Here is the input.
Amino acid sequence: MNRKRKVLLIFSALLFIVGLFFASTNAFSMIKTYILYKQSKDDFKKEINKETASKLKQMKKNEPLYKTYPNFGDEMGSLTIPRIKATLPIFHGTDEDELAKGIGHYAKSVMPGERDNSVLAGHRDTVFRQLGEVKIGDPLIVTTSAGTFTYKVHKIRIVDKDDRTVIVPKIRPTLTVSTCYPFRYIGHAPQRYILVANLVKSEVNK
Here is the structure.
């Protein structure tokens, strides 16, 4: 009788151990599953937050630089040329009325700071009398209602007066500054002196 009881006790103990093993295994699996779920959920949230931040940044990036654009004849900013210690007013348009007052902004080109080619022109015997002193690598600083945009001269060209490559579109934000050439020519000059500069710094107004 004692032997039978002993066998039953051993069998019961084995069943208890087996049950405990399966119970602990299931519990471990449940805990592991919960941890993985929580981790996945947190990773998902982080990814969503990252995507949202990226979209907001892109939306901000796609906002127009200029809320309003100038009319013909409006003073729209200034061009500072450190090399010749000059700060010159810029007017929208390149008719004689604008060029008589300062630098003219070619109306069919983009505004300074925008992607593409912003074209400025001025008379060689007034505002751009010393333009020939500007060298490659020199800064050209344009200030407008949108902010301050610093360009660096990377090319100097002399072209025929009818050369239209001066106003062609550009992939990156570019400033093209043009004046008649030669500088001391008497009468209508046959060529154009061109500075081509790339945007290197933007300080946009809030």
